[in-house]
Amino acid sequence: MDNDTIRTEQPYLSIVVPVYNEEGNLGPLMERLYPAVQGIGRPFEILFTNDGSRDRSLEILRRMVQQYPGVKVIEFNGNFGQHMAILAAFEMSRGEIVITLDADLQNPPEEIPRLVAEIEKGHDVVGTIRQKRQDSFFRKFASRIVNITTNRITGMQMQDYGCMLRAYHRYVVDNINRCRESTTFIPALAQTFASNPTEIQVGHAERVEGESKYSFYSLIRLNFDLMTGFSVVPLQIFALFGISTALFSLVFALFLLVRRFIVGAEVEGVFTLFAILFFFVGIIIFGIGIVGEYVGRIYQEVRKRPRYVVRQTYGFEE
Ligand code: UDP
Ligand code: MG
């Protein structure tokens, strides 16, 4: 296929890559990604979202727009996070099949044809399971929680939601584009629109350059977003727990009352009472925290701020 065809034809494949301070990875990524996608032999586009990088990433991406036909760049006006970066690219993507992948080469681009094949078989979402995952223990632990929660919420059974090498059918992406929530977790969101998802095993490499953009804190945030963003189960569990502890306390109070008449007044139990009290205070604070999570989200939605701001785009004009 010659370069002009790539430029003008309706793309069949859209590759979406979020980029945040990845100057060292972009070159090597492109050297592997471009031939892998070209090898499929269908018109394609590669959309990079520069998520407010403070290094030379944007400069490198702009050069790639000149150099590689089909490359497009969305430049954010600040750092809005990996998922917003992907959403922005989803909105501008035109391919029948949309594939997301990280810029850090932890996901091998050579696996893309296998993902495409699965969609062509009739699956609407293709997830990937990382074989021999090359991440820290803590990272893997956080992912397990994400996986368990997402499965509970969506009522589906997938093993690995954390791996961002994923393929989506156009209609799943269109549905995602209709969602306006300001915090999200794309694999879980996609799952709610999927009717025939599947998962395949792929290799996983260690991050070559730079370090993970996810801190301990942002991983906790992601888990909270996931739980409170997709279900009200935490609120319901908390309410149930409140009712049962209240009942239990009532029984306990009755028991103490009866004891008061049989044994007489006693003070030795004071510390037990304190222990119980602290336990409940802890639970109450936790509950307020959960309610706060929801209130915070409602606040965010009510403000209706734009979810991200695009400063400029490159390579879209035809
Ligand atoms: N990323 C982004 N914005 C952010 C954080 C990350 O666009 O605020 C991109 C990052 O450049 C990479 C991908 O999201 O392409 C995954 O990030 P990272 O490798 O740090 O996450 P991990 O592999 O540790 O889950
Ligand atoms: Mg990574």
Automatic annotation (TrEMBL):
UniProt GO BP: lipopolysaccharide biosynthetic process
Protein name listed in UniProt: Glycosyltransferase
InterPro entries documented for this protein: Glyco_trans_2-like, Glycosyltransferase_2, Nucleotide-diphossugar_trans
Keyword annotations of the record: Cell membrane, Glycosyltransferase, Lipopolysaccharide biosynthesis, Membrane, Transferase, Transmembrane, Transmembrane helix
SUPFAM superfamilies: Nucleotide-diphospho-sugar transferases
TM helices/strands, residue ranges: 237-258, 270-295
UniProt-listed Gene3D superfamilies: Spore Coat Polysaccharide Biosynthesis Protein SpsA, Chain A (3.90.550.10)
A GO molecular function held by the record: undecaprenyl-phosphate 4-deoxy-4-formamido-L-arabinose transferase activity
Domain Glycosyltransferase 2-like: 14-174
Species name: Oryzomonas rubra
Highest taxon listed in the record's lineage: Bacteria
GO cellular component: plasma membrane
